[in-house]
Amino acid sequence: MSWERNVRKVEPYVPGEQPQRKVIKLNTNENPYPPSPLVTDAIQRFDETKLRLYPDPKAELLVDAWADYCRLPSDQVFVGVGSDDVLSIAFLTFFNGKKPVLFPDITYSFYDVWCDVYRIPYKTRALDENFAIVKEDYLTENGGIVIANPNAPTGRQEDLDFIEDIVRSNPDSVVIIDEAYVDFGAESALCLIDKYDNLLVVQTFSKSRAMAGLRIGFAMGNPKLIRYMNDVKFSVNSYTMNMPSIYYGIAAIQDQKYFETITGRIIRTRERMKRELHKLGFSFADSVANFIFVTHEIVPAVDIFEELKKNDIYVRHFNQDRIGDYLRITIGTDEEMDCMIEFLKKYLDGGSL
Amino acid sequence: MSWERNVRKVEPYVPGEQPQRKVIKLNTNENPYPPSPLVTDAIQRFDETKLRLYPDPKAELLVDAWADYCRLPSDQVFVGVGSDDVLSIAFLTFFNGKKPVLFPDITYSFYDVWCDVYRIPYKTRALDENFAIVKEDYLTENGGIVIANPNAPTGRQEDLDFIEDIVRSNPDSVVIIDEAYVDFGAESALCLIDKYDNLLVVQTFSKSRAMAGLRIGFAMGNPKLIRYMNDVKFSVNSYTMNMPSIYYGIAAIQDQKYFETITGRIIRTRERMKRELHKLGFSFADSVANFIFVTHEIVPAVDIFEELKKNDIYVRHFNQDRIGDYLRITIGTDEEMDCMIEFLKKYLDGGSL
Q: Which residues contact B25 (CB under 8 A, 6 or more apart)?
C-alpha cells in the first residue's frame, strides 16, 4: 500500500469523553443549563422544506445578528462550526511563515495539533509556577501568537493591559486571543480590535450560550483579517453553517436576559465551589471561567479522578507534564456540584487519608 | 501590516448564487422536493435541552445508520459537513506527495481550489470533444486521482469497468470517485471498495436526499483509508457534525421509499426535458445526473442565461474555457421545467433567431 507514503500522518486531538449513560458530566466545560426558550421556539418554527436548498454560504443573517450584538460592522465578523473551526482556519490562514508560532505550554491542547496538521512551526512558552503567562516570552521574534484568555485548563485571566502589550509589541504577527470562556467574568479584548489590525478575538456559543451541540463560533477583527479568513474558508468548504445553526443561533443571540441569568448562576456556583473545595484541601488558581483547575494537598489527582468516575462523576484529567496532579472540574448545576462535594467529603475523610 | 506576508493567499471557490427572492432556481443542483416527512418528525421530536452538550464527535448514530444502509461495517464510513468537507479532508489527508494529482479539465470546480489552498501539485487532463474522460490520461505517474462520476457539469457517466481500470492501474495512489450525482441513474463504485484498498467513494445528502441545507456527506473505503481521514479530521475539528445533522440525517436515511419516489420523479422529468430541449435546438451529452449540460445550435449560452435570469429563472453558466457556450440546468419540478420550456420557446422563436 504505497499510497500510504503520501498520507498526512498526525496525532489527532482527543476530546473529553462523551459518556452515553446518565452521569454527572463535569468534564467538557459544557453549560449545565439548556439553551434559551427562544431556541426551542426557533426549532418548532423551523421550516423543514427549505432544507432542500443550500444554506447561505455567508450565513449573513447569523453574522449580522452577532455583529449587531457586538456593535460591529458585519465585515468584522467571521463565523465557523464552533470556535475549533474558526481557530483551525485562522491557523491555516495566518501562520504561513518560517518563524515559530508561540503559545503557552499549558493551554488548550488543540493548538499544537493544528500546528502539526498544517505543518506550522511552533514553540511553547512555560507558564510560571502560578500558571501565569510570562509576558516577556511573547516579546521575541515569532510567526504568530495564540493566547487563551481566560486560559484553559487553568481558568486564569491576564488583564487587558497585559494582552494589549503583547498585541502592540507584535505588529508583524497575527495575535489570536481565544476567549472561549470570557463570559464567565473575564474582560474581553474585543474593544481593541479597531486599534490593532493584527488582533483576532475568538469566541464560542459552546459554553456561555449553552449551544455546544449546535457548533457555532466567531472571530472578530479588522475587515482585512476577516476577509483573508473568508477566502481560505471558501477554499475549504463554502457551506459550513447548516440551516439549523443559522436559525437556532440567531434565536440564542436574541435572548440576552436568559444569557445573563444562566451565566450569573454559573458564576455564583463557581464562587461557592471555590470555598467548598478550599475547605476540602484543594488549591487552585483563581478561575474566571466555568471550571476550576484544582490540585489536592494530599490525594493524587488521578486517584480522585478514578474514584469520581467510578461513581459516575466525570471530571477531566490531563495526562501531561506539570498538570498531571490537577483536575479540571466544570461548573455544573448547584445540585450536581453539591453531589460531587458530598462525595469528595466522604472520600477524602475516608480510608485514603 | 507585515503580518500579511504570512497570510495564505488563495482564490476561493465561488458558489452558485443563492437569490433571496423567489425565483425558479435551477442553478445549484438542489432537489426540487422537500426532505422526507420523517425529517419533519425528527425536527418536531428534537430535544433542544441536549444542545447544551457537545455532539458525539464520531457521530456514531449517523455513521452506523449510513453504514447499515450501505451494508458496510461502520469503520468503512467517514462522515463530514457535506461532501465538500469530506473531499477537502481527503485531499488534505491523501495528497501529500510531489507528483501531481490528476483530474479532468472540466469537472467540479472545487478540486483545483483545494489543491491551491493545501499547496497540492496537480494537473488537469482534457476531456475529449464529447466530454468523455480519456482513460489513458490516468494511467501515467501521479500523486492521486479524482473523478466525479457522473461528472459535473457534464452529467456524463463512465461505466464501472472504466472506473475499475483506473483504480486497479493506480495501486500507489488514492483514487477518489466523487458520486454526488450517482443516485439519479448512474452506477456506483461502492461495490469495489473491498477489492481495492486505494479507492474512496464520496456521496452526499445535498442532492438526492434533498438535504443541502443540513450539510451531510460521506466517504466509503477500506478501514485504513477511513482511519487516516478521521485522524486528520480530529486534528482539524473534532465536533463537525452538529446534533440536528445527526438526528435529522438519520431520519432521512430511514425513508427509503420517499427517496426512491422523488429520485424517480426527477429522472422522469429529466428524460422528458431531454426531448423538449432537443426539439428547441439544444444538444447535450446524455446526462444521468439531476441536471443537463446544454448548448444551443444558434443562440449563445450567455444570452440565454441573461435572458432567463431577467425572467427569474436561474441556471448556471461557467465563464470558463471550452464550456463558455454551455448552460447547466438543474432538474426542478415538472411545473418549473415547463415554465422554463415555455419561456425558451417564446424566446428562441422570437426576434433573436
A: A53, B19, B314, B330, B332
Q: Is it true that domain A15-33+257-349 has CATH number 3.40.50.300? A: no
Residues A78, A82, A84, A88: is their CA dihedral positive or negative?
negative
Cβ pair B33:A52 closer than 8 A: yes
Tens digit of each residue's pLDDT (9 = 90 or more) over A13-49: 888 777 778 899 999 999 999 999 999 999 999 999 9
Chain A residues touching residue B19 (CB < 8 angstroms): none
- Over the stretch A294-311, which tens digit does the pLDDT of each residue have? 999 999 999 999 999 999
> What local confidence, expressed as pLDDT, does residue B17 receive?
77
**In CATH, what class is B16-33+257-349?**
alpha beta
| pLDDT tens digit sequence for B296-314 | 999 999 999 999 999 999 9
Q: What is the DSSP letter of A138?
A: G
d(CA A348, nearest CA chain B) in Å = 30
Average pLDDT, integer, range B50-60: 96
Domain covering B37-254 assigned CATH 3.40.640.10 in the classification? yes
Q: So where are chain A's domains? A: 15-33+257-349, 37-254
Q: Average pLDDT of A195-223?
A: 98
Q: What percent of chain A has pLDDT over 90?
A: 94
**Nearest beta carbon to residue A51 from set B7, B210, B233:** B210
Strands (E), A281-342: 282-284, 291-296, 313-314, 327-330
pLDDT value at position A353? 46
Q: What count of other Cβ atoms lies within 10 Å of the Cβ of residue B1?
A: 13
Strand, coil or helix: what is A72? coil
- Using CA atoms, how far residue A69 sits from A62, A351, B70, in Å, is 11, 53, 45
Report ipTM for this prediction: 0.95
Q: Which residue has the cell 444521468?
A: B288
Cell numbers describing residue B27: 442553478
pLDDT of residue A1: 58
Nearest CA in chain B to A57: B15
pLDDT of residue A15: 80
Which among B6, B33, B93 has CB closest to A95?
A: B6
Given a cut of 60, whether residue A352 has pLDDT beyond it is no
Q: One fold for both B16-33+257-349 and B37-254?
A: no
CA distance A13 to chain B (A): 6
